[in-house]
Amino acid sequence: xxxxxxxxxxxxxxxxxxxxxxxxxxxxxxxxxxxxxxxxxxxxxxxxxxxxxxxxxxxxxxxxxxxxxxxxxxxxxxxxxxxxxxxxxxxxxxxxxxxxxxxxxxxxxxxxxxxxxxxxxxxxxxxxxxxxxxxxxxxxxxxxxxxxxxxxxxx
Length: 155
Fold this sequence. Notes:
Blueprint lengths: L1 H7 L3 H15 L5 E8 L2 E9 L5 E3 L3 H9 L3 E3 L17 E8 L10 E9 L7 H17 L11
Antiparallel strand pairs: 1-2, 1-6, 2-3, 4-5, 5-6
Helix pairs in contact: 1-4
């Protein structure tokens, strides 16, 4: 469904907004889902579904900042045990954060678009299977959405 929708719409903001809504409606036992986009060395809140959220996250803060700086997916079974966790919603117990990279580029902070952040009110909500499936969706999003300020390929 996501691939079909992304292929039929060309505006990046419309694309990411509806992908956010589709994922939020499709996943069970989650209380927040959204994107933080990298801008000037910090993560800025993008389209999301759920309660109000932190608008800016430093790259050295929280699960989102850690996933961005480590350039890898972080699956946290208990956010209260994650050092530096940012508690935007006290009802959140587990979290999955997946970095998004510009396509055809080696994962690096210079090619980072931002992160897909998914929160759950259930401890250990996300399995390895969930992670792998959502990582594939994140790769699809990265390859199909023409985010603004994309670096030129093969510079």
